[in-house]
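[User]
Um, C-alpha coordinates okay?
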Amino acid sequence: MTLRATPVTRVTPQTTAPRLVARREQGQDPVVSPGPALLAGIADGPGLAAHRGRFGPASLPSADVLVELARAVDLRGRGGAGFPSAIKLASANRRKAVVVVNASEGEPASRKDAALISLAPHVVLDGAATVAHALGTCEVHLVLPSDAPAIRTGIERALRERVAGGERIRWRLHDAAPRFVAGQAQAVLQLLAGKENLPVTAWQPEAVRGHKGRPTLLSNAETFAHLGHLARVGADGYAAYGTAREPGTTLLTLRGDGWDPEVREVPFGTPLADVLSADEMTQPLLLGGYHGTWVRPVRLPGLNVSRIDIAAAGATLGAGVILPLSPGWCPLVRTEALVDYLAGQSAGRCGPCYNGLPALAEAVRDLVHRGGPFGRVEELCGLVARRGACAHPDGTARLVASMLTRFPEEFDLHERGGCRGVGDMAVA
Protein backbone atom coordinates (compact mmCIF):
# COMPACT_ATOMS: atom_id res chain seq x y z
CA MET A 1 0.00 0.00 0.00
CA THR A 2 1.21 3.53 -0.77
CA LEU A 3 -0.17 6.84 0.36
CA ARG A 4 0.14 10.42 -0.77
CA ALA A 5 1.59 12.94 1.63
CA THR A 6 0.39 16.50 2.05
CA PRO A 7 1.55 18.61 -0.91
CA VAL A 8 4.40 21.04 -0.38
CA THR A 9 4.62 23.91 -2.84
CA ARG A 10 8.10 25.24 -3.46
CA VAL A 11 9.76 26.19 -6.71
CA THR A 12 12.80 24.09 -7.55
CA PRO A 13 15.07 24.46 -10.59
CA GLN A 14 15.89 21.38 -12.66
CA THR A 15 17.96 23.26 -15.23
CA THR A 16 18.39 26.88 -16.23
CA ALA A 17 15.75 26.43 -18.94
CA PRO A 18 12.46 27.95 -17.71
CA ARG A 19 10.36 25.24 -19.32
CA LEU A 20 12.26 22.57 -17.39
CA VAL A 21 11.88 24.16 -13.97
CA ALA A 22 9.93 21.78 -11.73
CA ARG A 23 7.20 23.21 -9.53
CA ARG A 24 5.93 21.10 -6.67
CA GLU A 25 2.42 22.45 -7.01
CA GLN A 26 2.37 21.24 -10.62
CA GLY A 27 4.02 17.90 -9.90
CA GLN A 28 3.01 14.90 -7.84
CA ASP A 29 2.75 14.66 -4.09
CA PRO A 30 5.27 12.12 -2.79
CA VAL A 31 4.28 8.48 -2.66
CA VAL A 32 4.86 7.14 0.85
CA SER A 33 4.93 3.43 1.67
CA PRO A 34 4.48 1.95 5.16
CA GLY A 35 7.83 1.33 6.82
CA PRO A 36 9.20 -0.93 9.54
CA ALA A 37 9.25 1.60 12.41
CA LEU A 38 8.25 5.25 12.08
CA LEU A 39 5.90 4.67 9.14
CA ALA A 40 4.53 1.35 10.38
CA GLY A 41 1.04 2.62 11.13
CA ILE A 42 0.31 5.06 8.31
CA ALA A 43 -2.21 2.72 6.65
CA ASP A 44 -4.41 3.13 9.75
CA GLY A 45 -4.67 6.89 9.27
CA PRO A 46 -3.19 9.84 11.19
CA GLY A 47 -5.65 9.83 14.10
CA LEU A 48 -4.62 9.50 17.74
CA ALA A 49 -6.89 6.52 18.45
CA ALA A 50 -5.35 4.47 15.64
CA HIS A 51 -1.88 5.53 16.76
CA ARG A 52 -2.47 4.58 20.38
CA GLY A 53 -4.03 1.29 19.31
CA ARG A 54 -0.86 0.37 17.45
CA PHE A 55 1.86 1.87 19.64
CA GLY A 56 0.34 2.58 23.03
CA PRO A 57 1.11 5.73 25.06
CA ALA A 58 4.29 7.73 24.67
CA SER A 59 7.15 6.49 26.81
CA LEU A 60 8.44 9.04 29.36
CA PRO A 61 11.93 8.07 30.58
CA SER A 62 14.18 10.36 32.57
CA ALA A 63 16.79 12.44 30.81
CA ASP A 64 19.60 10.16 31.98
CA VAL A 65 17.83 7.07 30.64
CA LEU A 66 17.04 8.73 27.31
CA VAL A 67 20.65 9.88 26.93
CA GLU A 68 21.92 6.35 27.58
CA LEU A 69 19.43 4.88 25.11
CA ALA A 70 20.52 7.35 22.42
CA ARG A 71 24.17 6.59 23.16
CA ALA A 72 23.60 2.82 23.05
CA VAL A 73 22.29 2.93 19.47
CA ASP A 74 24.46 5.90 18.40
CA LEU A 75 21.34 7.80 17.37
CA ARG A 76 22.28 10.65 15.04
CA GLY A 77 20.19 13.65 14.05
CA ARG A 78 18.42 13.27 10.72
CA GLY A 79 18.49 16.94 9.80
CA GLY A 80 21.67 16.61 7.76
CA ALA A 81 24.59 17.17 10.12
CA GLY A 82 24.28 13.74 11.77
CA PHE A 83 25.20 15.08 15.21
CA PRO A 84 24.97 12.55 18.08
CA SER A 85 21.61 12.95 19.82
CA ALA A 86 23.01 11.79 23.17
CA ILE A 87 25.44 14.72 23.30
CA LYS A 88 22.74 17.21 22.35
CA LEU A 89 20.34 15.81 24.95
CA ALA A 90 22.95 15.84 27.69
CA SER A 91 23.96 19.41 26.85
CA ALA A 92 20.34 20.63 26.94
CA ASN A 93 19.53 18.79 30.18
CA ARG A 94 19.69 21.87 32.38
CA ARG A 95 17.21 24.18 34.07
CA LYS A 96 14.55 25.86 31.87
CA ALA A 97 15.34 23.85 28.76
CA VAL A 98 13.40 24.52 25.55
CA VAL A 99 12.21 21.89 23.06
CA VAL A 100 11.87 22.82 19.37
CA VAL A 101 10.64 20.48 16.62
CA ASN A 102 11.91 21.87 13.33
CA ALA A 103 9.61 20.61 10.57
CA SER A 104 10.19 23.57 8.25
CA GLU A 105 12.26 21.44 5.84
CA GLY A 106 13.87 24.29 3.87
CA GLU A 107 15.64 21.83 1.53
CA PRO A 108 13.35 21.83 -1.55
CA ALA A 109 14.24 18.26 -2.53
CA SER A 110 13.38 16.83 0.90
CA ARG A 111 9.83 15.60 1.55
CA LYS A 112 10.37 13.26 4.51
CA ASP A 113 9.44 15.54 7.41
CA ALA A 114 6.34 16.75 5.56
CA ALA A 115 5.32 13.16 4.82
CA LEU A 116 5.99 12.01 8.37
CA ILE A 117 4.16 14.85 10.06
CA SER A 118 1.22 14.53 7.64
CA LEU A 119 0.75 10.77 7.73
CA ALA A 120 2.07 9.95 11.23
CA PRO A 121 1.88 13.20 13.23
CA HIS A 122 1.61 11.46 16.60
CA VAL A 123 4.85 9.59 16.02
CA VAL A 124 6.57 12.99 15.92
CA LEU A 125 4.48 14.49 18.73
CA ASP A 126 5.13 11.46 20.98
CA GLY A 127 8.84 11.99 20.43
CA ALA A 128 8.54 15.66 21.35
CA ALA A 129 6.52 14.74 24.46
CA THR A 130 9.18 12.19 25.42
CA VAL A 131 11.96 14.78 25.16
CA ALA A 132 9.93 17.47 26.92
CA HIS A 133 9.30 15.17 29.88
CA ALA A 134 12.95 14.16 30.02
CA LEU A 135 14.08 17.79 30.06
CA GLY A 136 11.44 18.85 32.57
CA THR A 137 9.41 21.23 30.41
CA CYS A 138 5.70 21.39 29.53
CA GLU A 139 6.16 23.56 26.42
CA VAL A 140 7.12 22.48 22.91
CA HIS A 141 7.62 24.71 19.88
CA LEU A 142 6.67 23.33 16.44
CA VAL A 143 8.15 25.08 13.41
CA LEU A 144 6.12 24.39 10.25
CA PRO A 145 6.53 25.39 6.58
CA SER A 146 4.41 28.46 5.86
CA ASP A 147 3.96 27.44 2.22
CA ALA A 148 2.21 24.19 3.19
CA PRO A 149 -0.95 25.25 5.07
CA ALA A 150 -2.38 21.72 4.91
CA ILE A 151 0.45 20.56 7.21
CA ARG A 152 -0.51 23.16 9.81
CA THR A 153 -4.16 22.15 9.54
CA GLY A 154 -3.27 18.50 10.12
CA ILE A 155 -1.03 19.31 13.09
CA GLU A 156 -3.71 21.49 14.68
CA ARG A 157 -6.15 18.59 14.38
CA ALA A 158 -3.63 16.20 15.96
CA LEU A 159 -2.97 18.62 18.83
CA ARG A 160 -6.68 18.99 19.55
CA GLU A 161 -6.86 15.22 19.86
CA ARG A 162 -4.02 15.19 22.36
CA VAL A 163 -5.49 18.02 24.44
CA ALA A 164 -8.85 16.22 24.49
CA GLY A 165 -6.99 13.12 25.67
CA GLY A 166 -5.64 14.97 28.69
CA GLU A 167 -2.12 15.86 27.54
CA ARG A 168 -0.84 18.93 29.40
CA ILE A 169 1.92 20.05 27.06
CA ARG A 170 1.63 23.59 25.70
CA TRP A 171 2.24 23.42 21.95
CA ARG A 172 3.41 26.62 20.23
CA LEU A 173 3.19 26.78 16.43
CA HIS A 174 5.47 28.92 14.25
CA ASP A 175 5.48 29.40 10.47
CA ALA A 176 8.89 29.34 8.79
CA ALA A 177 9.58 31.44 5.72
CA PRO A 178 9.73 29.58 2.39
CA ARG A 179 13.51 29.95 2.07
CA PHE A 180 16.30 27.40 1.87
CA VAL A 181 18.10 28.80 4.94
CA ALA A 182 14.95 29.30 7.06
CA GLY A 183 15.36 25.88 8.67
CA GLN A 184 18.92 26.54 9.83
CA ALA A 185 19.09 26.34 13.64
CA GLN A 186 19.93 29.99 14.29
CA ALA A 187 17.34 31.10 11.74
CA VAL A 188 14.73 29.08 13.66
CA LEU A 189 15.79 30.72 16.92
CA GLN A 190 15.42 34.12 15.27
CA LEU A 191 11.89 33.16 14.22
CA LEU A 192 10.99 32.10 17.76
CA ALA A 193 12.29 35.45 19.01
CA GLY A 194 9.94 37.31 16.67
CA LYS A 195 12.73 38.39 14.34
CA GLU A 196 13.39 37.77 10.65
CA ASN A 197 13.67 34.05 9.93
CA LEU A 198 17.29 34.19 8.76
CA PRO A 199 20.53 32.79 10.22
CA VAL A 200 22.91 34.87 12.33
CA THR A 201 26.35 34.16 13.69
CA ALA A 202 26.28 32.16 16.93
CA TRP A 203 29.14 31.65 19.36
CA GLN A 204 27.58 28.74 21.25
CA PRO A 205 25.49 25.76 20.11
CA GLU A 206 21.76 26.11 20.72
CA ALA A 207 21.82 23.15 23.16
CA VAL A 208 23.95 25.35 25.42
CA ARG A 209 22.45 28.78 24.67
CA GLY A 210 19.38 28.91 22.47
CA HIS A 211 15.91 30.43 22.71
CA LYS A 212 15.93 33.35 25.21
CA GLY A 213 19.41 32.26 26.24
CA ARG A 214 18.14 28.93 27.56
CA PRO A 215 19.44 25.46 26.59
CA THR A 216 17.42 24.40 23.55
CA LEU A 217 16.96 20.91 22.13
CA LEU A 218 16.29 21.74 18.47
CA SER A 219 16.08 18.88 15.97
CA ASN A 220 14.09 17.99 12.89
CA ALA A 221 10.82 16.07 12.95
CA GLU A 222 12.36 12.71 12.01
CA THR A 223 14.88 12.92 14.85
CA PHE A 224 12.13 13.46 17.41
CA ALA A 225 10.22 10.53 15.91
CA HIS A 226 13.27 8.31 16.37
CA LEU A 227 13.71 9.44 19.97
CA GLY A 228 10.10 8.58 20.75
CA HIS A 229 10.40 5.21 19.04
CA LEU A 230 13.66 4.45 20.87
CA ALA A 231 12.12 5.33 24.24
CA ARG A 232 9.18 3.04 23.52
CA VAL A 233 10.98 -0.07 22.24
CA GLY A 234 14.35 0.25 23.98
CA ALA A 235 17.83 -0.17 22.51
CA ASP A 236 17.33 -3.83 21.58
CA GLY A 237 14.00 -3.18 19.89
CA TYR A 238 15.47 -0.22 18.01
CA ALA A 239 18.37 -2.38 16.82
CA ALA A 240 15.98 -4.95 15.34
CA TYR A 241 16.57 -3.09 12.08
CA GLY A 242 19.79 -1.80 10.63
CA THR A 243 23.30 -3.06 11.26
CA ALA A 244 25.51 -3.53 14.31
CA ARG A 245 27.41 -0.35 13.45
CA GLU A 246 24.30 1.63 12.49
CA PRO A 247 21.14 0.39 14.20
CA GLY A 248 17.71 1.56 13.17
CA THR A 249 16.07 2.99 10.09
CA THR A 250 16.16 6.26 8.19
CA LEU A 251 13.75 8.13 5.94
CA LEU A 252 14.81 8.79 2.37
CA THR A 253 13.39 11.21 -0.18
CA LEU A 254 13.84 9.98 -3.74
CA ARG A 255 13.52 12.43 -6.65
CA GLY A 256 12.10 15.00 -4.27
CA ASP A 257 12.21 17.88 -6.74
CA GLY A 258 11.01 15.82 -9.70
CA TRP A 259 7.67 14.67 -11.00
CA ASP A 260 7.60 11.32 -9.18
CA PRO A 261 8.87 11.97 -5.63
CA GLU A 262 8.86 9.16 -3.11
CA VAL A 263 9.50 8.86 0.63
CA ARG A 264 10.69 5.53 2.01
CA GLU A 265 11.79 4.25 5.38
CA VAL A 266 14.64 1.76 5.08
CA PRO A 267 16.95 0.06 7.59
CA PHE A 268 20.53 1.21 7.61
CA GLY A 269 22.63 -1.17 5.56
CA THR A 270 20.03 -1.48 2.79
CA PRO A 271 21.81 -1.68 -0.59
CA LEU A 272 21.23 1.35 -2.79
CA ALA A 273 20.38 -1.15 -5.53
CA ASP A 274 17.27 -2.04 -3.48
CA VAL A 275 16.27 1.62 -3.30
CA LEU A 276 16.98 2.78 -6.86
CA SER A 277 15.77 1.39 -10.15
CA ALA A 278 18.14 -0.42 -12.50
CA ASP A 279 18.21 2.61 -14.79
CA GLU A 280 18.95 4.97 -11.88
CA MET A 281 21.90 2.82 -10.86
CA THR A 282 23.52 3.65 -14.21
CA GLN A 283 23.26 7.42 -13.75
CA PRO A 284 25.22 9.93 -11.65
CA LEU A 285 23.61 10.38 -8.25
CA LEU A 286 23.42 13.51 -6.12
CA LEU A 287 23.43 12.34 -2.50
CA GLY A 288 22.47 14.59 0.39
CA GLY A 289 20.39 17.15 -1.51
CA TYR A 290 21.42 20.56 -2.80
CA HIS A 291 24.29 20.74 -0.31
CA GLY A 292 25.29 17.19 -1.16
CA THR A 293 27.86 15.46 -3.32
CA TRP A 294 27.79 13.73 -6.67
CA VAL A 295 28.56 10.02 -6.90
CA ARG A 296 29.50 8.42 -10.21
CA PRO A 297 27.52 5.33 -11.25
CA VAL A 298 30.63 3.15 -11.08
CA ARG A 299 30.63 3.67 -7.28
CA LEU A 300 26.96 2.76 -6.75
CA PRO A 301 27.04 -1.07 -6.93
CA GLY A 302 27.81 -2.39 -3.46
CA LEU A 303 27.09 0.98 -1.80
CA ASN A 304 24.60 0.85 1.09
CA VAL A 305 22.34 3.32 2.84
CA SER A 306 24.92 4.02 5.50
CA ARG A 307 26.52 7.22 6.73
CA ILE A 308 29.77 5.31 7.19
CA ASP A 309 29.83 3.64 3.76
CA ILE A 310 28.73 6.78 1.95
CA ALA A 311 31.35 8.90 3.73
CA ALA A 312 34.00 6.36 2.68
CA ALA A 313 32.85 6.92 -0.90
CA GLY A 314 33.53 10.64 -0.51
CA ALA A 315 29.89 11.66 -0.23
CA THR A 316 27.28 12.41 2.42
CA LEU A 317 23.82 11.07 3.12
CA GLY A 318 22.86 14.45 4.59
CA ALA A 319 19.14 14.69 5.28
CA GLY A 320 18.44 11.52 3.31
CA VAL A 321 17.85 13.16 -0.08
CA ILE A 322 18.68 11.03 -3.11
CA LEU A 323 18.54 12.67 -6.55
CA PRO A 324 19.37 10.40 -9.48
CA LEU A 325 20.25 12.30 -12.64
CA SER A 326 17.63 11.72 -15.30
CA PRO A 327 18.93 9.90 -18.40
CA GLY A 328 20.19 12.32 -21.02
CA TRP A 329 20.70 15.16 -18.57
CA CYS A 330 24.07 16.85 -18.04
CA PRO A 331 25.37 16.87 -14.44
CA LEU A 332 27.20 20.14 -15.08
CA VAL A 333 24.05 21.93 -16.22
CA ARG A 334 22.12 20.42 -13.30
CA THR A 335 24.77 21.67 -10.85
CA GLU A 336 24.90 25.11 -12.43
CA ALA A 337 21.13 25.51 -12.00
CA LEU A 338 21.33 24.42 -8.36
CA VAL A 339 24.18 26.81 -7.56
CA ASP A 340 22.26 29.66 -9.18
CA TYR A 341 19.27 28.80 -6.98
CA LEU A 342 21.38 28.52 -3.82
CA ALA A 343 23.05 31.88 -4.47
CA GLY A 344 19.60 33.46 -4.57
CA GLN A 345 18.60 31.80 -1.28
CA SER A 346 21.33 33.27 0.90
CA ALA A 347 20.49 35.44 3.89
CA GLY A 348 22.82 38.12 2.55
CA ARG A 349 24.17 38.75 6.04
CA CYS A 350 27.83 37.82 5.55
CA GLY A 351 30.41 38.30 2.84
CA PRO A 352 30.61 34.66 1.69
CA CYS A 353 26.85 34.65 1.04
CA TYR A 354 26.32 38.24 -0.09
CA ASN A 355 29.30 38.45 -2.45
CA GLY A 356 30.81 34.98 -2.67
CA LEU A 357 27.85 32.83 -3.73
CA PRO A 358 26.70 35.12 -6.59
CA ALA A 359 30.29 35.24 -7.81
CA LEU A 360 30.53 31.45 -7.55
CA ALA A 361 27.26 31.02 -9.45
CA GLU A 362 28.52 33.27 -12.25
CA ALA A 363 31.87 31.47 -12.39
CA VAL A 364 30.14 28.07 -12.59
CA ARG A 365 27.81 29.38 -15.29
CA ASP A 366 30.81 30.71 -17.23
CA LEU A 367 32.66 27.39 -16.85
CA VAL A 368 29.71 25.19 -17.83
CA HIS A 369 28.30 27.22 -20.72
CA ARG A 370 31.22 29.27 -22.02
CA GLY A 371 34.32 27.26 -21.14
CA GLY A 372 35.43 29.73 -18.49
CA PRO A 373 38.44 29.19 -16.20
CA PHE A 374 38.36 26.10 -14.01
CA GLY A 375 40.71 27.69 -11.49
CA ARG A 376 38.37 30.60 -10.77
CA VAL A 377 35.66 28.19 -9.59
CA GLU A 378 38.13 26.34 -7.36
CA GLU A 379 39.36 29.62 -5.93
CA LEU A 380 35.85 30.81 -5.06
CA CYS A 381 34.99 27.48 -3.42
CA GLY A 382 37.97 27.96 -1.13
CA LEU A 383 37.06 31.57 -0.36
CA VAL A 384 33.46 30.94 0.73
CA ALA A 385 33.91 27.70 2.69
CA ARG A 386 34.13 27.85 6.52
CA ARG A 387 33.72 31.64 6.58
CA GLY A 388 29.97 32.16 6.63
CA ALA A 389 27.56 32.88 9.47
CA CYS A 390 25.99 29.48 8.72
CA ALA A 391 26.85 26.41 6.65
CA HIS A 392 25.07 27.60 3.50
CA PRO A 393 28.30 28.67 1.72
CA ASP A 394 30.03 25.45 2.83
CA GLY A 395 27.28 23.24 1.43
CA THR A 396 27.20 25.11 -1.86
CA ALA A 397 30.98 24.85 -2.19
CA ARG A 398 30.73 21.11 -1.42
CA LEU A 399 28.28 20.62 -4.27
CA VAL A 400 30.49 22.52 -6.73
CA ALA A 401 33.68 20.76 -5.60
CA SER A 402 32.08 17.37 -6.17
CA MET A 403 31.10 18.43 -9.70
CA LEU A 404 34.68 19.49 -10.42
CA THR A 405 36.20 16.21 -9.22
CA ARG A 406 33.57 13.73 -10.46
CA PHE A 407 33.07 14.78 -14.09
CA PRO A 408 36.35 15.70 -15.80
CA GLU A 409 35.20 14.08 -19.06
CA GLU A 410 32.11 16.29 -19.09
CA PHE A 411 34.27 19.40 -18.93
CA ASP A 412 36.27 18.10 -21.89
CA LEU A 413 33.02 17.70 -23.85
CA HIS A 414 31.90 21.21 -22.95
CA GLU A 415 35.25 22.68 -23.97
CA ARG A 416 34.73 21.11 -27.41
CA GLY A 417 31.24 22.56 -27.63
CA GLY A 418 29.42 19.32 -26.79
CA CYS A 419 27.40 17.93 -23.91
CA ARG A 420 26.28 14.45 -23.02
CA GLY A 421 22.80 15.65 -21.97
CA VAL A 422 19.85 17.64 -23.22
CA GLY A 423 20.41 20.46 -20.75
CA ASP A 424 22.47 22.71 -23.02
CA MET A 425 20.09 22.15 -25.92
CA ALA A 426 17.20 23.29 -23.74
CA VAL A 427 18.84 26.56 -22.78
CA ALA A 428 17.98 29.43 -25.08
Residues 331-426 form a domain with the de novo design (two linked rop proteins) fold (CATH 1.20.1440.230). The first strand starts at residue 3 and ends at 4.
